[in-house]
Write the structure tokens for this entry.
Amino acid sequence: MNPTYPQSTDEFPYYLSFRHPQNFFEIDYPAHWNLETEEDGAVEFSAPTAESFAGLMLFRAPVSVDADQILRLGKWKELATIMFQQIQSSPMEQDPTIIYDNYRVERPETDPSGYRWFILCFDLILGVSSSYRDSSRPLFEPIIERMLSSLRIHRNEELLASQVLSRVTQAISDNFPDTEIKVSGMTVNVNQFQLSIGNLLSQVMRNPSGMETMVDHFVQGIVGLAKRNGEKLGSESWESARSRIQPLLKTDKYIQEANQRTQVKSDDSEGSSPPRTAPFLISAPWLAELRICFAIDNQDTFRFIHSLDLERWGVSLELLLNTAIENLAALPEPEVYTMRLSEDTPAVGSLQHHGGAASSYLLHPKLYSIASKQLGRSIVAAVPSRDTFMMFEYRDNRSMLQHAVERDYSTTNHPVSDRLFRITPDGVALL
């Protein structure tokens, strides 16, 4: 039995994260629900009372597979059809709530009702079954959908990293056929440029089915930067890069993990020369667990600034920080759009920017004067993702706002923070 969370109910659930002990998957579930793990690895989540009967079970199908080969040969639908034939079921359909290749069918029973899924990913097939009484479908179906939208399969992360590295190096080689490419850990060495794929890998892990699109977007951004400036990768001059440097907010944890991936010894040192370490992300402390990183804005993508860039340019962290904030302030002033559900409800606002990342505007020197024109003097902001900046007219409604921000933060490909921030004339503070 889970500990009691007074703030978590079926009507207003608070979600916890569960990671399977055998690392099959990770999923969010309502904090007040029961959680049971079977000896065979199956996991069942269930509402705590018989009157509110509902549940979700996940189990691994007893067969090892090669997901890439099954999809490449176009055999996934055929395989799913065979598995679903074991039960009386409705026609198969794909469920877009789940980010992995899947098929689902409705349960044949009328009460309880629900769905059954088979999910294909890496070297396993994951089976899922939901159930709830017909009378409680409107209550529990959104909860089940929220749970499945959070499902992340971490199986064989090394294989996924290898696939990403292979696709990145091949794409760079195709665009720069005479370029020497070396791989060291999570770093791709191109000429004198060392490119970390840590951020790209994090995105792919959150949405493996979008790997091809993410890799193409990542590489084309780097290629476009080099071709537009007529410079080799990683050789941008301070003069050409200075006006495009923008600040980006990231957590301590994100930066530590990124630097751990890149802090590997280069394998190209010879003789008695000391080995050369890979570059690390340049950052400055800001507020709570957040730090300010720096990136070259290439319109299509952001290229993080590393220690080797600062060495090449001969500039200080202070100058880099001042330059980034000045560039942010020099962009066209963002527009604030607000709406109210009624005259008595707090206003909700979104920030429409004209350059850089939306979340970076939390660092804008004139943020209060921009926002207060539409939202008054009591303003709270949230940046759950890199490209999302939300503001609220604050009326002591912290719990409701926090829940909404945490939900958005948990489902984005570019998470920044699940915190709430108070915007004041003197700057930004945690709420």
User: Anything to note?
Assistant: The radius of gyration is 24 Å.
